[in-house]
Amino acid sequence: MGERIGFIGLGIMGRPMARNLLAAGFQVTVHSRSPGPVEELVAAGAAPADRAAEVARAVDVVITMLPDTPDVESVLLGSGGVLEGVAEGSLVIDMSSIDPIATRRFAEAFAERSVAMLDAPVSGGEKGAIDAALSIMVGGEEEAFARAQPVFQALGSNIVHVGPSGAGQIAKACNQLVVAATIEAVAEALLLAERAGVDPASVRQALLGGFAGSKILEVHGQRMLDRAFSPGFRILLHRKDARIVQDTAAAVGAPIPSFDVVTAQLQRAVDAGDGESDHSALFAELERE
Amino acid sequence: MGERIGFIGLGIMGRPMARNLLAAGFQVTVHSRSPGPVEELVAAGAAPADRAAEVARAVDVVITMLPDTPDVESVLLGSGGVLEGVAEGSLVIDMSSIDPIATRRFAEAFAERSVAMLDAPVSGGEKGAIDAALSIMVGGEEEAFARAQPVFQALGSNIVHVGPSGAGQIAKACNQLVVAATIEAVAEALLLAERAGVDPASVRQALLGGFAGSKILEVHGQRMLDRAFSPGFRILLHRKDARIVQDTAAAVGAPIPSFDVVTAQLQRAVDAGDGESDHSALFAELERE
After folding, report:
1. CATH no. for residue B224?
2. Does the pLDDT at position B1 exceed 70?
3. Domain that holds residue A214
4. Contact A210 B252 (CB under 8 A)
């Protein structure tokens, strides 16, 4: 290939993703708020840059992997940000999970400079990032998606071009809606069994083979039985994603009556001090009721 | 083997189940409210009986497969019912989906006559019944469960002894909770995608591989995309099962905040005239909002 890649945001997800790009043979320039992860990646062969604009100047493809919408906005469009340094014909790929409507706005700002932008949020967690086995949900133009393929191939396994700009973030919002609602349903069912004097492990087993079967019942159901709530995916992050779901649903007029209750449960779990626990701790929140 | 079996209730599920018992070589005596299904089974080799008590007199194992708790109560304990005709040492297996607390009461009534009773509700629908591939969730004593094994083997594939009397019905209630809640979550997600201008089929595809993946997203998600709402499993029956979940949860003090909303959605669908549609028509209910 020969595309030079910039990677901004070396958190729990970004660190192994940047490593996988190096392993795939890409030249990678990195930037992050904390110096530790930068040093780690530099030791693995990456070049460091002090500001986002500098990263953009040095590469062909800029990837961002940041916590929330304001972080992405600041790194892309803020002072010293990507937009200041990016050259015409470059490609920006935001792999954070952020607001779909804001995403479209960012993409338009880059389009005015003839820079393509893809939204490409992921699921699969830290393990998926380490194993280069992420699911990647992509929004943006076909041409940009095709150009990004070698990059995505180095990071994930299930790569779907969902639609135009913002479609990747919409798909991620849908994903987070279904995941949290299914966790809540499994929690309600297993606690119902337990309070009715029936072994919840046997109930989980009986349900796994039929229509109630899901990845969540399998993995998070077992976590509930074991009260194994170390993350995994933190309640606090899922609460953030729930806000994105609610904002998007409100903006487009989509009813989400059951997810509104799930969001309230996530908030109660945060309020109760479980924000740093895995999202399967929705079970613990229910147990307190 | 050599047990003579009575089968009471020849509806959509009972008919193919009784046929599978005949096919497995059992002697089967049948009884049902409507004569048509009885004639059909008699033509296939079953003996007819006019009353439930008569069935009980003629056999070693009595199976009931009826719509709701009052039907089972009437057939088991009512005038001319199973309890009137049943001999000491017989086995009663109720495979209907009914109230777990009522089930325990019925089992006690039979225990007083030295008759064992199992609750053994199923999932898998008409197709599972025809293919002898039902999931069977069993509550009751180990000895009775062991005795019933040849019968269950002729009817289903995933057979789990969940616990003591009532445990099968509790597991079924948990199953119906998770199934309806997951259908509602998938409906909310796919409608959110559609209203946000993103192809819901692509979103379903993107979600299938990850933690949002489930049998429901696969099967019922596709039904929603196709607006294919002919049952399947009718909303009206799921509304009935939702009542069982709510009654049980209230009786044992288990919180079901998200399922309460799902139950309200089922009721709205019934009120809107969708009672005879498949439960994936929760999507249609949402679309009206």
Report:
1. 1.10.1040.10
2. no
3. 170-288
4. no
